[in-house]
Amino acid sequence: MNANWKLLKNGLIVTINDSADVDTGDILIEGKYIRGIGSNLKHSDAQYFDASEYVIIPGLIQTHVHLCQTLFRNLADDLTLLNWLNKKIYPWEALHTPESLAISTKLGIAELLLGGTSTILDMGTVNHMDVVFEELARSGMRAFCGKTMMDKGEMPIALQENTSKAIDSSLTLLERWHNTGSERVKYAFAPRFILSCSKELLTETVKLSREYNVPLHTHAAENMTEVDIVKTMYNKDTISFFEEIGAAGPNLCLAHCVWLNDREKDILRDTKIKVLHCPSSNLKLGSGIAPIPEYLDHGITVSIGADGAPCNNNLDAFTEMRLAALIQKPKYGAHVMDSESVLRMATIEGAKTLGLENEIGSIEVGKKADLALIKLNQVHTIPYKSIYSKLVYSTPSSAVEHLIIDGEWVVKNRSLFNYDINDIMKQANYIANKLFIN
Amino acid sequence: MNANWKLLKNGLIVTINDSADVDTGDILIEGKYIRGIGSNLKHSDAQYFDASEYVIIPGLIQTHVHLCQTLFRNLADDLTLLNWLNKKIYPWEALHTPESLAISTKLGIAELLLGGTSTILDMGTVNHMDVVFEELARSGMRAFCGKTMMDKGEMPIALQENTSKAIDSSLTLLERWHNTGSERVKYAFAPRFILSCSKELLTETVKLSREYNVPLHTHAAENMTEVDIVKTMYNKDTISFFEEIGAAGPNLCLAHCVWLNDREKDILRDTKIKVLHCPSSNLKLGSGIAPIPEYLDHGITVSIGADGAPCNNNLDAFTEMRLAALIQKPKYGAHVMDSESVLRMATIEGAKTLGLENEIGSIEVGKKADLALIKLNQVHTIPYKSIYSKLVYSTPSSAVEHLIIDGEWVVKNRSLFNYDINDIMKQANYIANKLFIN
């Protein structure tokens, strides 16, 4: 038996391949890669694993997360976006120490991994970002992450930076962490949003993200007031502004896109901008409901994310999938957002968003083995049919029993391989009480 | 030690009393009743239970459920109300045998109890309803239930009844089960909705529900097409029609109320009609979003329910609470539906809906001991503050560890006292495959 080979036997495999194959069978893994999928596979060197009680899906991908905010969970309800940022989130991000940021990151990663999320696109905070990258590298998670850039607007002193500081510190982090700390951890530039970034900062970031071929991750058109301010500032709609500064292109990843007009939707389609949909967050901050069925009709790539703990208040891909399906139906009709399409948004469409569609997002020979094993023989998933419906509407994240990333067990029997969860919870409570709860 | 006395020590008690007290303390129970709440309680005859790891809330109350539909879970997605009823639900209810109805009921009850729901208002099906009452009485759950009455519209033959048959069979069930099989099980008349009931049937049911002083449980203004048909049939809005036939009053429990005009809202307020809010179901069937903040501003009693498994696809009070909070914020503002108000909807407002506000719905001396014990030291509920926010936004039903009804353990350590859950799941799968899955 060689640890380099694994053979998962008799799982119900939801492949998310182009033919949408769903079949009971085996998955043979060598190192990081899937080498075989089929019936009665055998391999003399492999560690066998009985997967007959499990549904196996691609590891879930969340393309908009703020790990730095996990310690603010349940502490900032009932506020709209700009109040929420100015009264709660900015002051708290300003209070972060390396220690508090590390535990916030760990707590967020723990919740994500235990809930079957194997890959994230994370937006960080201004300071101490090395600790976020350190934790990501240690965790085994696949992640794009970037320091949030802000050179404009009223901010707590600790978050104030000028344009060159925001850019220089981003480049330092990129050089230190992009593909180096862990092959699974990559950099993404993260100017926060138009209101907190100068045109100069945004324009420079566009160039850098092209130069390094990494995602440009930002928020856009989340809230009507924000959209109005952008229009007043630049006499342009949000997406037209991005077009003007040369940002419109396949590596532009825009969280939210709740308030876009028809012309802006066409620009998304024509320039292959990616939409990162965060249904819980959009509801909770009273932002609105993003017109996702229209984006899908346009052929725009839409993926999902939980956003941060204080606007959700979870980091749960299953919750986001269920909500992504439900919230569109009153407006567009009960037939929209079928469960298979929604599961694709949380897997292969997330992979496309990150430019990783040839590596992850589906279970196929030659792809990396990022796999979530879900126990569905539970009271809320009986009867046991209609697998997509079950995964999207009836499966709680607690049904994820195991998670494999790059062929390695990261969660087994609902326990994290690389973390002591009790220790994390204890530290998180202690530090949150010290810094953020009065 | 006397099994008649129980003493829960050192729980975090969320009382839902008029002062909204939340304190760490003890609860002393004698038989069915809460006899003491406070610090350092002692009782020489009591069975002690260490509740120091738990939040203790009143058992949750769901006021609109269809246990008969649990076996149809995940089998009827992406349809609007009337198609969903005509193409899926009616044909399947017509196929029910006593055996399939019993297992559907058991599976539903199991999910509800394991998720902390101690009391329901259930709408049954047309036939074999004795088995539903038998299972309710056996389960230990507190429930109002009634046979669905329909004497109009196109139906599968097995569901067709004339007016007198619908009434007579309801009365037979009432006499057999109301306060008799189990003191916890009571009858509620359940004409399905205006479209499937003659005016004569509804008028007669109004009289009977007054005579027996039991709830009149029906669906109203769920879907715009339904509302239009009612208007065409009777030249009246839905609530005006109920008023005309004498139904408007405190025992009228109306599921949904998505599409009411201002005059109808005033009638609800003036006549103390109860609204049963089902957020998942209203989204999933594309029905709309009920204007709950307006009802609350009117002082109308609003409680919540999961509706049936095929339009949700769960029976989970925590999911409904979270959604009840979130879906109103884009329209009415992020400040509406604070988490404390939402938890009250799932507890004391549910009790008021059923006329049980002096018996259940809050943790107070003299009330019945219906208590859910929830373990909150979990990764998705850290940091451990803001208890209402945590319960409404971040607590999965899997965090319910124990449930007490009438002072009796019904769930302990996530296991049902009165049922073998593996046996239920196995039977449910077998029968669903035989009858409802082709």
Description:
The structure is a homodimer of 438-residue chains. Chain A is an alpha/beta fold. Chain A folds into two domains: 5-58 and 360-416, Urease, subunit C, domain 1; 60-353, Metal-dependent hydrolases (TIM Barrel, Alpha-Beta Barrel), CATH 3.20.20. The first copy, chain A, is 37% helix and 21% strand. Chain A contains 16 helices and 19 strands. Chain A has helices spanning 81-95, 98-114, 129-139, 163-177, 199-212, 224-234, 238-244, 262-271, 279-284, 292-297, 317-326, 329-332, 339-345, 348-353, 387-394, 421-435; strands at residues 5-14, 22-30, 33-38, 47-50, 54-58, 60-65, 117-123, 142-146, 148-149, 185-187, 190-191, 216-220, 252-256, 274-277, 302-304, 371-375, 400-405, 408-412, 415-416. In chain A, the strands form four sheets. In chain A, strands 1, 2, 3, 4, 5, 16, 17, 18 and 19 form a nine-stranded mixed beta sheet that branches. In chain A, strands 6-7-8-10 form a four-stranded parallel beta sheet. Chain A has a four-stranded parallel beta sheet with strand order 12-13-14-15. In chain A, strand 2 (22-30) and strand 3 form a beta hairpin. The longest helix of chain A is centred in the first third of the chain and has 17 residues, at 98-114. Chain A is globular and about 65 Å long. The mean pLDDT of chain A is 97.
